[in-house]
Amino acid sequence: MNPVLLGGENRSGTTLLSIVLNSHPDLCVGPELDFVEPPNLGTHVLEAIELVRSRDPRAVGPGTSSGDPYWYDAAHFVKQCERFGIGYAELAGAIRARLDRDGGNLVTLPQRCELIRVLSEARARAQGARTWGIKLQRKIRDVDEFARIWPRARFIHIVRDGRDVITSHLHTVPDWGHKDVETAARDWVEIISFARHRAPSGRYLEVRYEDLVASPEAVTRRMCDFLGIAWSARMVRHHELEHPLHRNPWSHPAAEKTKARLTQNSVGRFRRELGHTRTAQYESVAGDLLADCGYERSTGAPSR
């Protein structure tokens, strides 16, 4: 199976994109799996599985938080696997099998990616799909590293107006989102610029969030052409289908919205909520790339 790997800045519509693609009968596409962050994907995650299973407060708190920061990354990975439909026993079994085979503790990036492949292919087979996928999220900036490990993978990068992205950070996920406008703008520019520069030719596609919600059939057909699969009308009826994320959301901030029909309600949100001063700050950093991506400036802020 050749994977499809999704990316984008947080709050850019990556979860929506994964749900839309997962609606295709040939695709099994899950949410993000932050598999690089835990110290290892071996014994550390095995211990975290037992803590999460028993709802130990060291690993389980409100949402995906944990009482003990030491366990956060591993426990968060376990919960993300649940969002993908990977149960505790299945995850533990796959880890033990890799430990027996590798003789190491699943520390290197290739070892981590191999475990993700094994888990994701199992999910795809269970779903009757031919191709698996997950969200790399902001790691799309390192697309070249994953392209070397998965030489036949395809990458889809969803880009959203950065001013709406920072607005969502400030008002929807204030606990963990960007709090500084200029830092957010620099990160948005960096992720897009790095991904474009590092992406392997012919294996990288950019789609805009605004186009997906405005013209879902046209954009999903474009993605299917890129992936070399026939288009399915199920992709524009994602809200009528069941998805593992909705069964085990673990307080995912986008889970509820992905149950609804596509709308353009959030397009241009910054015009109502960000304010002129912060919009100008954002455009002074990211204005050139905003224009390159097809977004009109709304202030006269000079680029820096």
UniProtKB/TrEMBL annotation:
The Gene Ontology terms for molecular function here are: transferase activity
Q: Which UniProt keywords apply?
A: Transferase
One Pfam short name? Sulfotransfer_3
Q: Which domain of life is it from?
A: Bacteria
* EC number in record: 2.8.2.-
Protein name (record): Sulfotransferase
Q: Which organism is it from?
A: Nocardiopsis tropica
> What taxonomic lineage is listed for the species of origin?
Bacteria, Bacillati, Actinomycetota, Actinomycetes, Streptosporangiales
